[in-house]
Write a structure and sequence with these properties.
Layout: E1 3-4, H1 14-19, E2 25-29, H2 32-39, E3 46-49, E4 59-62, E5 68-72, H3 76-89, E6 99-108, E7 118-121, E8 123-126, E9 131-132, E10 149-150, E11 169-171, H4 174-185, H5 196-202, E12 215-217, E13 219-222, H6 230-243, E14 250-254, H7 257-269, E15 278-287, H8 297-303, H9 309-329, H10 331-335
Helix pairs in contact: 2-9, 3-7, 4-9
The structure holds 2-acetamido-2-deoxy-beta-D-glucopyranose (NAG) (4 copies).
Organism: Candida tenuis (strain ATCC 10573 / BCRC 21748 / CBS 615 / JCM 9827 / NBRC 10315 / NRRL Y-1498 / VKM Y-70)
Function: Nucleoside permease that transports adenosine and guanosine.
Protein name: Purine nucleoside permease
Length: 366
């Protein structure tokens, strides 16, 4: 059964017209399999058309009492930020008190995480906004460069950026992240470990990559460039740490957070949303590096069983649902008021006020 908002008698009241649909939690996914991970488990009978959403996903879906809504943005930074902005500007919604659960699958750095793990980020770091030269063209004198990437305004990959666009780093509410982790941990024992093939691949790794899936705190990168291999992941491990002044701990790679977070940040500026009500969750669908026994990263990427696509989707729901439930069930006691935030939240410029413990005083280009 589905009903359009205009056909729903409850929306003829001026109360809703003046205040809009105000879900307690908004689930944001990026593509069809992630959308299905939620739609196959939760019934969303209301379908609301919002101009400006992805042509593939033109509607927002809400549960019967509108306490939970769900939207899919489309993939990549451009689709993610455009769709998010369209949602946040739509007058049918009042999202000023809504919690956002940005969630999807991502690549996993095997020295820090394994496939099927459910990760919650405090930092989202954009790693694509940089200079790049094909590393084969690097003269011999540059043989210690980890890759062909280096920061804007810098002359080498070891130097902190001297120019930023402002979308490179977002820091989120740590207490909210920790509460989400505690909720998700309730389902940790029932996280799937995947097919025998998934397990076999996992067993080829040493360290965290070789362990069973867990719920954990670690950070996510955003890049339209779908990178893989030792050099890129090692470089981004160092880069994320450097650019956040050793505060971020990268474990997963994805393509959207900075796009969606920039839209949320701009709207938080005018109080249409609250930036301390955002949770970023990624479950790991594949390893970004081959195991030690496999030399050829390209062959690994193209031809190996990737590790856990379905597993990551199953665990996305298993890890995410207790978070949604916690928000809805403890709305009056905890969430309506807000989960107290004691760390800095916002971007690299301090656009929402406060001073980040990363970034520089000033840059040559803003
Ligand atoms: C990105 O958005 C465009 C325009 O809405 C859509 O046609 C396309 O399918 C989206 N791409 C992905 C990968 O989501
Ligand atoms: C996304 O955010 C991260 C950290 O929050 C930042 O390092 C990265 O540059 C951002 N990416 C984009 C595309 O804005
Ligand atoms: C972060 O590190 C850079 C480069 O070392 C430094 O210039 C900057 O002041 C540091 N930022 C903070 C907030 O400590
Ligand atoms: C940038 O900061 C440095 C040191 O913090 C200061 O010496 C310089 O004058 C500043 N430049 C501008 C344009 O504000």
């Amino acid at each position: 059964m589905s009903s359009n908002r205009s056909g729903d008698p409850r929306f003829s009241t001026s109360l809703v017209q003046s205040h809009g649909i105000s879900p307690k939690v908004f689930i944001i996914t990026m593509f069809i399999p992630e959308q299905e991970a939620w739609n196959s488990k939760i019934d969303f009978p209301h379908h609301i058309t919002v101009p400006g959403l992805s042509l593939l996903f033109p509607q927002v879906h809400c549960v019967q009492d509108y306490s939970i809504c769900h939207m899919t943005t489309g993939e990549g930074e451009i689709n993610a930020s455009n769709s998010m902005m369209a949602l946040l500007l739509n007058p049918q919604f009042d999202l000023s008190r809504t919690y956002f659960l940005l969630n999807g699958i991502g690549g996993g750095e095997p020295s820090r995480v394994t496939t099927g793990s459910v990760t919650f980020a405090k930092y989202a770091i954009q790693v694509g906004l940089m200079y790049q030269i094909d590393s084969r063209e690097l003269p011999v004198a540059y043989k210690d460069w980890p890759s062909g990437y280096f920061s804007y305004g810098a002359k080498d990959p070891f130097t902190y950026p001297d120019a930023v666009y402002g979308t490179e780093i977002y820091e989120l509410n740590e207490h909210l992240r920790d509460r989400a982790i505690r909720a998700a941990k309730k389902n940790e024992a029932s996280l799937q470990s995947g097919t025998p093939q998934n397990i076999l691949l996992r067993n080829m790794y040493d360290g965290p990559g070789g362990e069973p899936p867990t719920v954990m705190a670690c950070d996510v990168t955003t890049s339209d460039n779908y990178f893989f291999g030792h050099r890129m992941s090692d470089f981004f491990m160092d880069y994320t740490s450097m650019v956040t002044n050793n505060t971020a701990y990268y474990c997963s790679s994805a393509q959207e957070e900075n796009g969606t977070l920039e839209s949320l940040l701009r709207m938080a500026k005018s109080h249409r949303v609250s930036f301390d009500r955002i949770i970023v969750m990624r479950s790991i669908s594949n390893f970004v590096k081959p195991p030690p026994s496999v030399d050829d990263s390209v062959d690994f990427f193209n031809n190996f069983n990737k590790g856990g696509f379905q597993l990551a989707l199953d665990n996305l729901f298993l890890g995410g649902y207790p978070v949604v439930e916690d928000i809805v069930e403890n709305w009056d006691e905890v969430y309506a008021e807000g989960v107290k935030c004691s760390n800095y939240v916002g971007d690299i410029f301090g656009s929402l006020g406060g001073t980040p413990n990363f970034g520089k005083h000033n840059y040559t280009i803003h």
